[in-house]
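Supplementary notes for students who missed Thursday's class. We covered one full example, reproduced here. Read the sequence, then the structure, then the short commentary at the end.
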Amino acid sequence: MSEYKEIRTSHSEKGSRGRIKTYISTQLIWLIFGILEALLGLRFIFKLIGANPQNTFAEFLYNVTGFFLVPFANLTPEPSANGLVLEISTLIAMAVYALIGWALERAVYVIFFRPQEGAESRQTVVHHETSYSMDREKEDTRPN
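Structure (token representation):
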């Protein structure tokens, strides 16, 4: 019979789940507003270089971003020449949406983030007793 001791250690931080949820929420906000900024930037470039509005991708891009540009419609004149358009309202919309995204991310962080309150470590000692039997091999004593 033999005896051995096993030590199990567990470590947990108080409030770590809340911090993880806050981190994921803020990253989702940045992702959503980052995608919106990229789409608006593409729209600005497409209009600036005079991309064909009948092209499937350009048409899709103009339809999706058009919804987000409604509050900024006719805010400023749009200088154009030979089909090239400088959409200043799109640049303004990009700045406003960037500020909204930043403010929303900061609000979520300030409201829901909880600083680390300390860690808790726990050790558990487990004693085990094991028994085993060994069968001895019998020696062959027969003459050769």
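Commentary. The helical segments are 16-49, 56-69, 88-112. The longest strand covers residues 2-13. If anything here is unclear, bring it to office hours.
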